[in-house]
Amino acid sequence: MASTTNPLYASLSAKPSLPKPNNNSSSDLFVRVQNVNAVSLRSSFVSRTTAVELIGGGNSVLSATRMGSRSMICASSAQVVDQSPSKTDSKVPTIVEVDLGSRSYPIYIGSGLLDQPELLQRHVHGKRVLVVTNNTIAPLYLDKVVDALTRGNPNVSVDSVILPDGEKYKDMDTLMKVFDKAIESRLDRRSTFVALGGGVIGDMCGYAAASFLRGVNFIQIPTTVMAQVDSSVGGKTGINHRLGKNLIGAFYQPQCVLIDTDTLNTLPDRELASGLAEVIKYGLIRDAEFFEWQEKNLKSLLARDPSALAYAIKRSCENKAEVVSLDEKESGLRATLNLGHTFGHAIETGFGYGQWLHGEAVAAGMVMAVDLSYRLGWIDDSIVKRVHQILREAKLPTAPPETMTVEMFKSVMAVDKKVADGLLRLILLKGPLGNCVFTGEYDKKALDETLHAFCKS
Ligand SMILES: NC(=O)c1ccc[n+]([C@@H]2O[C@H](COP(=O)([O-])OP(=O)(O)OC[C@H]3O[C@@H](n4cnc5c(N)ncnc54)[C@H](O)[C@@H]3O)[C@@H](O)[C@H]2O)c1
Ligand SMILES: [Zn+2]
């Protein structure tokens, strides 16, 4: 069982109090620091992130305040539960604010947002824009985005760079193509880079924006579920090195994230399901009510029901925004967003990138993390069953590929970014649904048992 030898222990829980509008301090959070190697998160009641409706209504409206020039109507994530997705007017964007002081920014979520040029244009700095996209997305959405940037705005000129599609191009050579275009087009410091695409494009364009002329303005237009619920929010940008994924990069926050849910209409089914793995993750680590909602609405999500998707994206962004606002640079708490990822990365690396999508590997990884949590006696078996059930229903894997061996897992996990002082820290579930810990204090024998239970050799 967990030893108590580590010197510090950080536990974060929230008082179940109503949110204070525009609260930039963490005063409504109860933080007890005992161990930086282990973070325990109970956050169903955390209400620091403000979920904002341009035109709010019903139960979601708690109070109104002004932030800068924007009118804000704030609601806690707990209150948002009461808002039935069907009540959302999909043409009116929902806004989730990422609260990072002077680097705060809005996430706009809704249908038809690319037909509302003013949303994008208010975040463009300067007169020059570079849209970074790939050869799959360009034919589908590039014209629409150029129109949204320029309609009624003749002073702005837009260049674009179309990269080859695929994780294998998330590298330095492809990044150089962005810089080539920016330099050839004589873009200056007051330019804006726009990422139009999935997580690969978002991560690469963000890193290009962070480093071109030491940093230019940056906007995210994510077009996969994975990017809309996860990668476009929080400012992690970067590229892969041949020796490992995402090893080169920067924290660099965008000016805004614009999520037009209509873009999901062209997304392949397998990519949709892969993104849902991250949605399910939020429920498991910190939002039991959201998990229950997912159990009831999974069919609608798979059928791409627009209001169900919009709600799942909004709720996911709220969860991510909240964690990022509390721990932007991942000193502990943010690591909890990696439930299943240590096992998942081993699958992605061991099985070969591109064989399984990221969300598929994470789904199998979550099952393994849940299995370990159960072996440790930290959760009851009803959670194990529910996780299997929801992943199966989402058509996601519930076990690693048969070719994975215990040794393959161990060798990749040994170089995981979450290893500290030789100790592999994992995100594990503990307590009732919606609670997790990030810790190196677990019985290593149980980890061995989990690996052997999922691998033939
Ligand atoms: N920065 C972060 O915090 C973070 C978090 C999670 C994942 N990531 C990164 O994100 C990447 C995975 O992102 P992804 O799953 O979006 O993969 P992706 O960017 O490769 O997109 C998946 C596929 O869907 C296509 N596509 C995208 N939008 C489409 C649309 N609307 N219609 C049709 N096709 C479309 C893409 O061209 C691609 O072929 C990985 O590189 C991962 O490391 C980053
Ligand atoms: Zn992930």
UniProtKB/TrEMBL annotation:
Top-level EC class as recorded in UniProt: lyase
Domain 3-dehydroquinate synthase N-terminal, residue spans: 161-273
InterPro entries: Dehydroquinate_synthase (IPR050071), DHQ_synth_AroB (IPR016037), DHQS/DOIS_N (IPR030960), DHQS_C (IPR056179)
Region (Disordered): 1-23
One term of GO molecular function: metal ion binding
Pathway named in the protein's UniProt entry: Metabolic intermediate biosynthesis; chorismate biosynthesis; chorismate from D-erythrose 4-phosphate and phosphoenolpyruvate: step 2/7
EC number: 4.2.3.4
GO process annotations (BP): amino acid biosynthetic process; aromatic amino acid family biosynthetic process; chorismate biosynthetic process
Entry's localization field: Plastid, Chloroplast
All residue ranges annotated as the 3-dehydroquinate synthase C-terminal domain in the record: 275-419
Co-factor requirement: NAD(+); a divalent metal cation
Catalytic activity: 7-phospho-2-dehydro-3-deoxy-D-arabino-heptonate = 3-dehydroquinate + phosphate
Gene Ontology terms: cellular component: chloroplast
UniProt KW keywords: Amino-acid biosynthesis, Aromatic amino acid biosynthesis, Lyase, Metal-binding, NAD
Gene3D superfamilies with a match to the protein in the record: 3.40.50.1970, Dehydroquinate synthase-like - alpha domain
Low complexity bias locations: 13-23
Keyword Transcription regulation attached: no
Role according to the record: Catalyzes the second step in the shikimate pathway.
Alphabetized HAMAP family for the sequence: DHQ_synthase
Family classification: Belongs to the sugar phosphate cyclases superfamily. Dehydroquinate synthase family.
NCBIfam families: aroB
Name this protein carries in UniProt: 3-dehydroquinate synthase, chloroplastic
